[in-house]
Amino acid sequence: MDHFQYQNGELHAEGVALRDIADAVGTPFYCYSSETLENHYRVFADAVGGLDATVCYAVKANSNIAVITTLARLGAGADVVSAGEMKRALVAGVPASKIVFSGVGKTADELAVALKAGVMHINVESAPELEMLSEVAASLGLEANVSIRVNPDVDALTHEKITTGKSENKFGIDWADVPATYARAASLPGIRVAGIAVHIGSQILDLEPFRKAYGLVAELVATLRADGHAIEHLDLGGGLGIPYVGEQAPSPQEYGAMVQAIVGDLGCRVFFEPGRLIAGNAGVLVTRVIRVKEGATRSFVIVDAAMNDLLRPTLYEAHHDIVPVSEPEDDGEGQVMDVAWEVVGPICETGDTFGEPRALPATGAGDLLAIRTAGAYGAVMASAYNTRPLVPEVMVKDDAFFVIRDRISVDDMLARESVPDWLTDGGGARREASV
């Protein structure tokens, strides 16, 4: 469920017409619904409420400080994969004691920052990282609370670029090496290892891969405890999928019941890291039609948003529903749809497309379209390719909206660049340009 609905013929975010936002801030822009974010968080938290659970929002899904703050005020922790994300979470009001630091490529500096901040625990993903963490912690006179991320070699049955729990993936400790890794951790200074972490992928639409992975983890708890390790908590990651194009995704309640049945009697505190599940349906990307173009073999709607603003269709062949901001007329037999159009952006790449051709109502220059389910892995993956300004982000609450990230202009980008002395007459100055 989301809070983007037609009211009086216009698509609204809660009580605000998207057209009004477009008039105020220009296009393209991202718009997030506070009520949707809050509702999705509460539904998931309630679904795992029978466990000793902590829900740590996966910041990588949408790292805007206003989004994180919205969730922090409901009690959410944060799962972060960089020092930058950790700083965002702290600024947004997430206490360090509710932050999990994950990621396969943490540097010594990042580990030091995390330890000094006092994060809840660090998910270690390799033997070399474990050794590095020990050295950093010992040098600071601190103790690192650690979970070892294990790789159960379970196929998540999702897109190959977002599966993370197979043996050929870069994540986690190979299953056969887990006992030796825990034994080594127990001997290292500055390390307190008391947990197991697992995360098998993203946008998972079948509970069976979760069931298989969590069953293996439950067996591993017994094995490690028999070896003398105090396994106090489990980090079960995220990955529960959402519907983009009518898929049947397991409900949070079904997921929670499954987790309860498998690990509920282990006496462990359990951490979850949902991201897409909370943010995905809470956002749309609003774009304006520049023109329509009849091609030789297909027809195009060319819009002012592009692949640099929303990369998922190009990167993952992902589908996003595209709907007009003005509700199509109904002739009594259903909405009148025009021919199939391919919605594309202005970038000089054939891959700059928002998916397969769509049936849209009659569309022309100046019309507004909304690309749905864009709240996760949208703005966070955006770039300035083709020197295109990064688009603003807007948050809606009831009948009010607020710009939570300004449009990053071309002048803003150019101001961060400079020319070396040998290319200038006066020496090393930034060049000003007027367009």
Highlighted features:
27% helix, 21 strands, eight-stranded parallel β-barrel, TIM Barrel, Lyase, Ornithine Decarboxylase, Chain A, domain 1, alpha/beta, 435 residues
Topology:
Layout: E1 4-7, E2 10-13, E3 16-17, H1 18-25, E4 29-33, H2 34-47, E5 53-58, H3 65-72, E6 77-80, H4 83-91, E7 99-101, H5 108-117, E8 121-124, H6 127-140, E9 144-151, E10 173-174, H7 178-187, E11 191-197, H8 207-226, E12 233-235, H9 252-263, E13 269-272, H10 276-279, E14 283-294, E15 299-303, H11 312-316, E16 322-324, E17 340-344, E18 358-359, E19 368-371, E20 393-397, E21 400-405, H12 410-414
Parallel strand pairs: 4-20, 5-6, 5-13, 6-7, 7-8, 8-9, 9-10, 9-11, 11-12, 12-13, 15-17
Antiparallel strand pairs: 1-2, 2-3, 4-14, 14-15, 14-19, 16-19, 17-18, 20-21
Descriptive overview:
- The protein is built from 12 helices and 21 strands.
- The protein is of the alpha/beta class and 435 residues long.
- The protein folds into 2 domains: 4-31 and 280-414, Lyase, Ornithine Decarboxylase, Chain A, domain 1; 33-278, Alanine racemase (TIM Barrel, Alpha-Beta Barrel).
- The strands form 3 sheets. Strands 4, 14, 15, 16, 17, 18, 19, 20 and 21 form a 9-stranded mixed sheet that branches. The chain has an 8-stranded parallel barrel with strand order 5-6-7-8-9-11-12-13, surrounded by 4 helices.
- Helix 2 runs parallel beside helix 9 (252-263), helix 5 packs across helix 6 and helix 8 packs parallel to helix 9.
- The mean pLDDT is 91.
